[in-house]
Specification:
This protein has 280 residues and is of the alpha/beta class. The chain has 9 helices and 8 strands. It has one domain: Alpha-Beta Barrel (TIM Barrel), CATH 3.20.20.150.
Amino acid sequence: MAQKLLVYQSLWAMERRRPDGLEWSLSEKLSMIRDAGFDGCGVRFIDPPFAREVTGFLRAHGMTWQAQCYPQSVDDLKPVLALVQELGADHLNLQADVRPYTQEECVPYINGWRKLAADAGVELHIETHRDRMTTDLFFTLHLLDRFPDLRFTADLSHYLVGREFAWPIAPENHAMIHRILDNSWGLHGRVASREQIQVQFNFPQHKDWLDLFLGWWEHGIRSWKKRAGPDETFTFLCEFGPPPYAITGADGYELSDRWAEAVQIKDLIRALWQRIEQDG
């Protein structure tokens, strides 16, 4: 038995949204992900026909997937869990599409979702994301005070932008991010700056931001390896989103190749994992 890394590609990130309207077909997207050596995809489980088609392809090619959902009530999770039981998934990634004003208002949602998932035998991760229950870093840390065993999927780009951390990042800000990572069981990966949710990380002016995220991701992986069992799986979803996440020029076209960037991040994460493994 050994701990394992799975690197997935986001299907949302395969949308091009070009001014000329040219898009890849679903078949093309899945074949590209397979041929590039990804382990699988993040798959929306709110559209059963779509989920069945995508997971059918992935299963036929020995690949796996992360189920994704965006419930607005406790009961919204029930059909998603039924679909996960039908099709399987490495885990269920939940974006809590509610915005409670107080911690107390969060309790019924978290307790309800966790009970439903536990009863269904499905591993549940709650994603850190803007415009969701976890939109604010301080609010989310207070949730951890109440639920210290919460399992997060950490998408740290949202907190960097939301808090607009000054550069260089202060120790107290690193400490807050590390606390999120110390409760994370997977990562969603994009590179942000303090002002922009997604930057072209190969541009030389953005190198410091790439290094920052690689450092945070390394902390998250090392932390997880200490907490997880000997045969558990850690997932990293490459999630370089289409416009308006991706920055475009005056002509409406993107300034870089997001698909190439996703493949590059896949390789960087696998190399990082290998280095951590070698460190013991």
